[in-house]
Amino acid sequence: MHLIRGAAVLAVAVALCSAVGAATDLSDPAEPWKTARAGITEQVPPPFEPLTVAADRANPQVSCWGRSYTLGAPLPVQIESLGISLLAGPIRVVLRQGGESTVLEGRPVQLEAQRQDRVEFSGQMQVGEITVSTPCSIEYDGLVDVDLTLSAAQPAQVQQLSVQIPVSPEVALFCHYSTQWGSYGYERVDELGESGLSRPWTASWWIGDHYRGLTFVTDTSGGWTGDSEQAFRLTREPDCVLLCANIIGEPTVIEGERRYRIGLQATPGKPLPVGWHGRQVGHASSEPTQEYARELLEERGTNIALLWHDSARFFSYPEPQDAEVFRQVVKTYHDAGLRCVYYITLSGVGLNSEVFRRNREQWLMTRPDGGPLFGHQSDNPDVAAADTSSYSSVCPASDFADWLVWAVDRAMAEYDLDGVYIDNPGPYYCQNQAHGCATRGARTHPYFAVRDLHKRLYTVVQAHKPGTGLVWEHNSRTSNSLNLTFVDIYSDGEHFRVKSKGTPEQMTRTLLDISGTGRQWGAQPAMLCSALNTREQYTWWMLARLLPFGNVMFSHPGWMDFSVYQPVLRARLDFGLNRVPVSWFTPEAVPEWFAYQPEELAVGGYVAQDGRALVTVSNLTDDFQALRVPVAGIERELGGPVEIRDALTGAVCQPLGRNLVVSIPADSFRMLLIQRR
Questions:
Q1: What are the CA-CA distances from residue 126 to residues 60, 163, 447, 635 (Å)?
Q2: Is 21 exposed, middle or buried (0-12, 13-18, 19+ CB in 10 A)?
Q3: Contacts for 318-325 with beta carbons within 8 Å, 24 or more apart?
């Protein structure tokens, strides 16, 4: 059945009808943000879809866009994404108490609140002296939020508590794990040894294939016991790939209640819009002329402009120094045909802003000693030495989130912005108990709070610019679906730069399979080019690896050989990737009509409905290669004789006999425009 639609409580303070005049003072002493409830609503913003519930079955099923969850207690018995079952069997909880192990799976659940944006359900089971309860919710982005709760009337000992997720082996091709400021990995499951993969507590896990997957999240190691090096185990079993979260691994006394918050989310979280392949992002001047803005689009091929924080009153503070000047900046870019997004961060704010000074103790993201985790005061307590660019770390689990969403809402309304660029989304760890972090004394990585903040920001952006608003995020080192579901564009790769002691060679094929296409996340990738800063000689090398996967770099001419990249951006827009529907293929699934040799090449491309194709062929080897493709197959697919040109130079690529033959230097690429004569 369809859920009864809740009242449209769009309390996002989206003052679309408010007059544009003097800028809102974001440090208003009355602190209107505390009651604004910005971005909080029961409405479901497109392209997400309202939840539906099929309750007339043994195990109720809740469906959202592209995915369905068959419920059971303590955890779902099946999850589907894009029509494919992700699980080889029910997710189970194993509890050992009194020397006996009990497997809990597929028990009845009680459906509770049902709205278009959220369904609540629960289960309760008894194992000896321990009551296991699972109050749960699922929201329209597909996040299942579970409080796995153990309780006992009298102190009782538990020897084991583990969550075991049997993933279908047909789906479990890749694994990605990460903890912000911790370790991370991009792995092929078929390359794991017989003993599998063992890890200490790690916040986020994703297992999937080229198109879909399943995320498992916890936000703290507080209350986890046992061998810390075996907190997580990933193994290949005869009938599944098994992820085990070993929460209790040694005799542990339960007194009263003990809660463990976990999240499950099938991916991708949303569809991508027509024209997303042609969204090309870049850094832009805060003082543009009309000529500069036109050049940015027409010559550089950038159609989304990032406005840096140098025009703001304070760091990550979406109020410009001069409101009228800033409105003219945005208008100049709009008149040239570009969209504008404004810089913010979810983990810091200007140290000298009055709103921060009033709320400092509650907002701080802290280290164990109570000091700021990072920022100006983390190593220099002298506030007098701070300037407008100085900042302090703040935690999204505090009511800083309420202020930030309200501030972005006001900026969107007053300056006609098209969205935001999110830097440092985290979640970094925090130990500030003033707002609820440091569960059982351990670090909290507030994944759920950061996800809620993303959801609210996405709601505000779409309310102001329906269908065209943008959330663009810098997410280096981690592809976190809880965030990326509410992101339109993401930029990975900063950890490959010299400053981060990384190298471009760390950009492996497995990383690109997981993070390079955006398919698994429902968001567009635009790799950060800062890896090329002082390594401009890698420009061809980098593009050769990105373009077959549909990935374009964040455009910053100072960090690359832009004479190589500019023709690529221009060719993509000339083909119409920003405006026409296309079918798209990437290296793991090249269509039969492009039967290329040698197999060492990487091929990806687009086919428009009018029969044109734009194909990138990359040579990722250390030697020269020659592409060979039978022309007959191309002509059968495109419906007649074709002309093939180099898309960057316009030169005709003449077939040699019956084959198209194109030479490609080592670590380089060719972009081909194919069209009917």
A1: 22, 17, 30, 66
A2: exposed
A3: 318/26, 318/342, 318/344, 318/407, 318/408, 318/410, 318/411, 318/420, 319/23, 319/24, 319/25, 319/26, 319/407, 319/410, 319/411, 320/23, 320/415, 323/22, 323/23, 323/414, 323/415
Residues with Cβ within 8 Å of 11's Cβ and at least 6 positions away in sequence, in order, are 36, 37, 38, 40, 41
Verify that 477 and 570 share a domain, yes or no: yes
Six-digit token string for 561: 């050989």
**Within 13 Å and on the Cβ side, how many CA atoms surround 403?**
33
What lies within 8 Å, CB to CB, of 322 at 6+ separation is none
For 643, other C-beta atoms within 10 Å of its C-beta total 12
- Give the residue numbers spanning the domain of 545: 281-348+395-580
- DSSP H or E stretch at residue 323: helix 323-336
Q: Under DSSP, is residue 552 helix (H, G, I), strand (E, B) or coil?
A: coil
Query: How many CB atoms neighbour CB 484 within 10 A?
Result: 29
* 384-443 confidence digits (pLDDT tens): 666 777 899 999 999 999 999 999 999 999 999 999 999 999 999 999 999 999 988 899
Q: How far is CA 90 from the centre of its chain?
A: 27
In a domain, 336, yes or no: yes
Do residues 572 and 594 both lie within one domain?
no
Quick one: residue 123, left, alpha or beta (phi over 0 = left, psi -120 to 50 = alpha)?
beta
662 Cβ neighbours under 8 A, 6+ residues apart: 617, 626, 627, 653, 670, 672
pLDDT in tens, 241-298: 999 999 999 999 999 999 999 999 999 999 999 999 999 999 999 999 999 999 999 9
The SS3 assignment for 524 reads strand
562 and 652 fall within a common domain: no
What token pair was written down for 438?
Answer: 């440091």
